[in-house]
Amino acid sequence: MVQCLDGVKHLLAVLFKCCDLELKQPRGLEDPQVLARETVFSVSEVEALYELFKKISSAVIDDGLINKEEFQLALFKTSKKESLFADRVFDLFDTKHNGILGFEEFARALSVFHPNASVEEKIDFSFQLYDLKQQGFIERQEVKQMVVATLAESGMNLSDEIIENIIDKTFEEADTKHDGKIDREEWHNLVLRHPSLLKNMTLQYLNALRLCFP
Amino acid sequence: PGDKSTRQMNAFQLIGMASSLDLSGFFEE
Q1: Which among A91, A151, A175 is the top mutation candidate for probing chain B, defined by the most B β-carbons within 10 Å of its own β-carbon?
Q2: Do B25 and A159 touch (CB under 8 A)?
Q3: What do you get for the CA distance between the two ends of chain B, in Å?
Q4: A198: which DSSP letter?
């Protein structure tokens, strides 16, 4: 019986060790060629981007990973600011869903913001940004939540009646299937009618990466 | 502001304006 318990303990220890290794993020610049092949960045841009990553990831804890505090600090120069959108963007960057960003996650996500990235990639990323519950469609309630949160963050004041009115008109235009939600196809069509919805999806800085981080 | 131009925006344009989400902060000192 004791031998059997020891065996189980040993098995669990091995299992935890495996899980731990699995959960650890690859740190550092492992293979710039692979990232350059799979993103819009060139090898030298990947290397320049890594310099930016090192700077951001060492702001609070120098562990070669970006946590949410460092992410906010880099964006707003303060970690105190409440931002629903910064939270959403961080969550979308965090494809491994472990609350920290490795360089690969950072580079792959920023690639979507490159001026040379396709409009389709940008439309898809922006759709996920608004699909708070990740259900594959944007609900009216999600839009209201974001409007209210972002207005509050910016100190803008609009009455509930005006907000409801704006959302009504938005759904009248976007929800062409009249099912009370905006799916990817409807989002795609809405963005094509209003390209300004993608204006924050392109970062001109990414064209000058090698100049910023030689 | 509840001015006319704000009310004529769609909800996503309004969110974009109010959120001031811009990743260029990454590149600025």
Answers
A1: A151
A2: no
A3: 31
A4: G
Tokens 């209003």 — which residue?
A: A194
Q: Does A89 reach chain B within 8 Å, measured CB to CB?
A: yes
pLDDT (tens digit, 9 = 90+) per residue, A161-198?
A: 999 999 999 999 999 999 999 999 999 999 999 999 99
Q: Tokens 């880099």 correspond to what residue? A: A74
Q: Beta-carbon neighbour count of residue A133 at 10 Å?
A: 10
ipTM attached to this prediction? 0.85
A62 vs A120: CA distance, rounded Å:
35
Task: Give chain B's length.
Answer: 29
Sign (positive or negative) of CA dihedral B12, B14, B19, B24 = positive
pLDDT in tens, A15-29: 444 444 444 455 567
| Side chain identity, residue A82 | E
Mutate to test the interface with A, among B15, B20, B28, B29 (most CBs of A within 10 A): B15
Q: Could you count the other beta carbons within 10 Å of the beta carbon of residue A72?
A: 21
Give, in order, the Cα–Cα distances in Å from A161 to each of A17, A76, A142, A158, B18: 56, 31, 17, 8, 18
